[in-house]
């Protein structure tokens, strides 16, 4: 729904022989009224995210956003992603609001690593059959995450598509657009050198990756059973994707220069960290430097997965990595007590950057 979040045209509605309104569209499986009900339920939450730059209300064909106070060399940064199969597990346990937080925070983190700050977010929700309360709960979660980031929920689409999605299925995706001055663009690979430190920022759990495996592993298990820390299994596995904007703002306020950031998503540390490193450097990671979440230990035990594979599937407790100069270690820990020194950059003779794990 392009925030008129319209699902369809009403021109197919007509009166049946009893005088009651019927809809050929509804008979085909698309309920316009359900979509309108969902919009009514979410309106106030969406408007609560509007910043002064938003120039169109809900109901416009497109969202309008004024670009003011631009830096000298502005760059727009955009990223699109989806929640993936986590939405299936969340739906089975009516945890819809967390899914809204998931998609916003995942997208936010993907532009933060390029030095951008978010301007606005657009969402896409599709299902075989719309349940207004569920759709609204997802959008409420999005709105909560957008407000926390100072990001406007500018528009979106809600699609009811029987025959495309199987019964009970849905999909949630989104796009974020942010702004960065070219001088502040990350990463800065030419500034990286041997001896630079790698600081890990803790994740809240699996975030939004590996859920096809997770759902398979958890099938038939008691999801209310507590982990060693007392948190129910279902809460640990569905914890919303963490936003790292507050962490980065604290580093910025402390005057700490960041050379690069890597969002640890699908592919884990092994695939994501090399994306920001220059040739001739190797990331040496000490896997004993942080405490891996209990949920990952359980998933490994129940799945029979080898540790090496797990580090290519899951974030294993580290959701973002920052490359910082060695002499900034103390200021980083002062600004971010939960930041963990997990490794260093070292010289390498390899033509491509890589990650080496040490236990």
Write out the CATH superfamily name of the largest domain.
PurM-like, N-terminal domain
Name given to the CATH architecture of the largest domain:
2-Layer Sandwich
Give the low-pLDDT segments. 1-21
Radius of gyration: 22 Å
Number of domains: 2
Q: Compute the number of strand runs.
A: 12
Assign an overall shape.
globular
The averaged pLDDT comes out at: 92
Helix content: 25-40%
Order of helices and strands: EEHHEHHEHEEEHHHEHEHHEHEE
**What percentage of the residues does DSSP assign to strands (E)?**
15-25%
What is the fold-level CATH name, i.e. the topology of the largest domain? Answer: 60s Ribosomal Protein L30, Chain: A
Strand order of the largest sheet: 8-10-7-11-9-12
* Largest sheet geometry: 6 strands, mixed
Distance between the termini: 49 Å
By secondary-structure content and strand pairing, the structural class works out as alpha+beta
Q: How many helices?
A: 12
EC number: 6.3.3.1
Subcellular location: Cytoplasm
Protein name: Phosphoribosylformylglycinamidine cyclo-ligase
GO molecular function: ATP binding; phosphoribosylamine-glycine ligase activity; phosphoribosylformylglycinamidine cyclo-ligase activity
């Amino acid at each position: 729904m392009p925030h008129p979040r319209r699902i369809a045209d009403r021109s197919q509605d007509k009166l049946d022989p009893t005088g009651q309104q019927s809809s050929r569209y509804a008979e085909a499986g698309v309920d316009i009224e359900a979509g309108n009900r969902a919009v009514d339920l979410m309106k106030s939450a969406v408007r609560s995210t509007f910043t002064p730059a938003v120039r169109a209300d809900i109901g416009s064909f497109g969202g309008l956003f004024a670009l003011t106070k631009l830096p000298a060399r502005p760059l727009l940064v955009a990223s699109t992603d989806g929640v993936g199969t986590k939405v299936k597990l969340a739906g089975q346990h009516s945890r819809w609001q967390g899914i809204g937080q998931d998609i916003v925070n995942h997208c936010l983190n993907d532009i933060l690593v390029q030095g951008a700050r978010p301007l606005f977010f657009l969402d896409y929700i599709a299902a075989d059959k719309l349940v207004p309360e569920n759709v609204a709960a997802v959008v409420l979660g999005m709105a909560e995450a957008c407000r926390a980031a100072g990001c406007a929920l500018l528009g979106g689409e809600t699609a009811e598509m029987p025959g495309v999605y199987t019964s009970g299925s849905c999909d949630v995706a989104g796009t974020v657009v942010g702004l960065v001055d070219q001088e502040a663009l990350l990463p800065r690979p030419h500034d990286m050198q041997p001896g630079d430190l790698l600081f890990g920022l803790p994740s809240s759990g699996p975030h939004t990756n590996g859920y096809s495996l997770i759902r398979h592993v958890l099938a038939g298990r008691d999801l209310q059973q507590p982990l060693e820390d007392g948190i129910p299994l279902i809460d640990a596995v569905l914890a919303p994707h963490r936003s790292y904007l507050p962490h980065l703002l604290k580093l910025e306020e402390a005057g700490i220069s960041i050379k690069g950031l890597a969002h640890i998503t699908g592919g884990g540390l092994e695939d994501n960290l090399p994306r920001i490193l220059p040739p001739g450097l190797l990331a040496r990671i000490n896997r004993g430097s942080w405490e891996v979440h209990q949920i990952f230990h359980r998933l490994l035990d129940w799945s029979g997965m080898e540790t090496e594979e797990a580090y290519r599937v899951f974030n294993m407790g580290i959701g973002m990595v920052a490359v910082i100069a060695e002499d900034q270690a103390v200021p980083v820990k002062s600004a971010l007590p939960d930041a963990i020194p997990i490794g260093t950059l070292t010289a390498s003779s390899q033509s491509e950057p890589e990650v080496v794990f040490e236990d």
